[in-house]
Specification:
The chain is of the alpha+beta class. The chain folds into two domains: about 1-65 and about 195-235, no CATH class; about 70-195, no CATH class. About 25% of the residues lie in helices and about 30% in strands. The two termini are about 25 Å apart. InterPro entries: Flag_bb_rod_N, Flagellar_FlgE/F/G, Flg_bb/hook_C_dom, FlgE/F/G-like, FlgF, LlgE_F_G-like_D1.
Length: about 240
């Protein structure tokens, strides 16, 4: 029982670390960490005194919201956020939020994310620009100007508890009922925020978890062998 519980927790930790590594090059990605706690009571049975056995269980995921490195790209439609904020994009049931500012224009002039979701203005409407017009200029406040005329303003908001937002896939977040507030940071044109995943740390963690998992598997296998031999002897 102890070995199996250990394997479950280690598998969960491995999944989290592997997902972090898989997104090391994803713009604006925030790393996750598994939160563990010691179980006070279990239904475990063992030859040893159960009071000497300590079990842990995962109680959830914590999002590490530290800002990733900002790198200049030179693409006028790329934006990075400096500060605690999120860009509003169109979701299936209302606004969703992202830190990935790799935007493009569709043939109709709609400003969209890399997977085609409409970027929303501060008023909640999709942003539409003239695809044949001059190169847009994006100010530190998110205002988009074309030939000196404001054509829209990127909707950027902040949350009182950003770590309580929920990941919904495709590098998007759901507000989980939180009311968005005013963004007090800076929008940087021609730049992207990188992932805050530390690849060396995550790779080292994966190696440690893999070794611990192998050891736990040996414990389970050894216990099974002992039980099998005990059954065989009792049957003689």
């Amino acid at each position: 029982m102890l070995g199996l519980q250990t394997q479950r927790v280690l598998q969960r930790r491995m999944d989290v670390a592997a997902n972090n590594l898989a997104n090391v090059a994803t713009s604006g990605f925030k790393a996750d960490a598994l939160v563990l706690e010691e179980a006070e009571e279990t239904q475990a049975h063992a030859e040893e005194d159960p009071r000497q056995i300590r079990f842990v269980r995962d109680i959830g995921i914590v999002h590490q919201m530290e800002q990733g490195p900002v790198a200049m790209t030179g693409n006028p439609l790329d934006v990075a956020l400096e500060g605690d904020g999120f860009i509003m994009v169109q979701g299936p049931n209302g606004p969703q939020f992202t830190r990935d500012g790799a935007f493009t224009l569709t043939g109709e002039g709609r400003l969209v994310t890399s997977d085609g979701r409409a970027v929303l203005s501060s008023g909640g409407a999709p942003i539409v620009l003239d695809p044949q017009g001059d190169t847009p200029s994006i100010g530190r406040d998110g205002a988009i100007r074309v030939a000196g005329v404001e054509a829209g303003r990127i909707g950027v908001v902040s949350f009182a508890a950003p770590g309580a937002l929920s990941k919904v896939g495709d590098n998007l977040w759901d507000a989980q009922g939180q009311a968005p507030g005013e963004f007090e940071g800076v929008v940087v044109q021609g730049a992207l925020e990188g992932s805050n995943v530390r690849p060396v740390v995550e790779l080292t963690r994966l190696i440690e978890i893999s070794r611990a998992y192998q050891n736990a598997a040996k414990i389970v296998s050894g216990a099974d062998d002992l039980r099998q031999r005990a059954i065989e002897r009792l049957g003689r």
